Amino acid sequence: MDRNWKELSKKASDLEEGAYFLLSNPEYPLDNLPESAAHYRYEEPVVGGDTAPTSKDLRTFFWENRRNRRLTRPTATVWRQGNTYGLGAVIWTATLERLTNG
After folding, report:
1. pLDDT at residue 2 above 80?
2. Which residues pair with 41 in a beta bridge?
């Protein structure tokens, strides 16, 4: 799957606090997911910390993880919480319940 990592890293660096977007279609509105779908945040890998990463840092993060299944699946997302950015996915609500309840 060919993705424009430069454009995606720019979009990611412009994310607002608590926001996320779909990597395969960054313009798709995810704020109104159907009830059967949910957003799941993977705890690893993440980038950031005390200071927010630059667009170049994010592009490097994407490039280093370009073969990671979490980044290549069609429902892959990138999220921002504070100065931390990470990978996620849009998944079925039932799957989310299974993941969070063990």
Report:
1. no
2. 88
